[in-house]
Design goal:
6-stranded parallel beta sheet, alpha/beta, Rossmann fold, elongated, 284 residues, Tumour Suppressor Smad4, 6-stranded antiparallel beta sheet
């Protein structure tokens, strides 16, 4: 069983965590691997190395070592190769992680198959513009807002042919159940069990007392466009925290369930609700 390790090299002491994980895996007869760049940067020897694309094709599991940002960034890569991912928290909150850097002993369970794979829903965002379409995939969320910060925007949201509403807000956020504990939660959205499939829509700082989150079934296609499009209206689509597209006012965006799934490796004795209870207490 080959296990590809992707560390966030910017974190302090990540090298120590990587070496401990490698030692644990090798003791169990598993084959750890890293990209040449990561292995050289962290001065790791005695393991399989290669280019990322080659290793992703060959590996059986991806391990991401870092915070939630590292984990869902690598999860987005792993899902394109249909590989499961295991998160080890070496950052702050680590909501998506199954293990903490301070206790890697459960890695031995990989050798015995003592784990489960959870499939998580992924969103597809498609921006329709004059030059064609641009598509991105989100494990956490998609945000549609004005390109210039600090200004509200009027947005029309439809589900197929049905109008959901017109919103004056800083933007509209669409989250997966996995993303319901991230930006969506901060914006006032509900927490959804990640094993479910649904799309959570939450207005961001709406100029209304009546605007609330709506949870849609995963088979719905949601369409967002400016209420009064003009040349000065510029939209920005932000996918998992990264701006991916800027659009003029006459253009629009669709958000729907993707054909991809993100596969998370989990240990059965650590449930979503245990993690929720622990991590929310850490947040305060």
């Amino acid at each position: 069983m080959m296990i590809l390790i992707f560390p966030n090299r910017r974190l302090p002491d990540v090298g120590r965590c990587v070496r401990a994980a490698i030692s644990q895996l090798q003791c169990c007869g598993l084959t750890p691997a890293m990209t040449r760049q990561d292995a050289d940067a962290l001065q790791v020897e005695g393991i399989a190395t290669g280019e990322a694309s080659e290793l992703l094709k060959a590996c059986d599991l991806v391990i991401a070592i870092g915070g939630d940002g590292t984990i869902f960034h690598q999860a987005a890569v792993a899902m394109q190769y249909d590989k499961p991912i295991l998160g080890i928290n070496s950052g702050r909150l680590g909501f998506l992680s199954q293990l903490e850097a301070t206790d890697l002993s459960p890695l031995s369970r990989l050798a015995t198959g003592d784990y489960v794979i959870e499939n998580r829903m992924v969103l597809r965002m498609t921006a329709y513009r004059k030059g064609g379409t641009v598509t991105s995939f989100a494990i956490n969320d998609v945000v549609i807002s004005r390109s210039h910060l600090g200004r509200t925007i009027d947005l029309d949201v439809r589900c197929g042919k049905d109008q959901i509403g017109e919103y004056r807000a800083d933007g509209i956020l669409f989250a997966t159940p996995t993303g319901s504990t991230a930006y969506s939660l901060s914006a006032g959205g509900p927490i959804i069990d990640p094993s479910l499939e649904s799309i959570i829509m939450t207005p961001i700082c709406p100029h209304s007392l009546a605007s609330r989150s709506i949870v849609f079934s995963s088979d719905k296609v949601l369409i967002v466009r400016p209420t009064m499009p003009d040349a000065e209206t510029q939209l920005c689509a932000i996918v998992d925290g990264t701006p991916v597209e800027h659009m003029q006012g006459s253009e629009y965006v669709t958000v729907e369930k993707s054909e991809y799934v993100s596969r998370f490796l989990c240990f059965e004795d650590r449930s979503f609700y245990q993690t929720l209870n622990q991590k929310m207490k850490l947040r305060g």
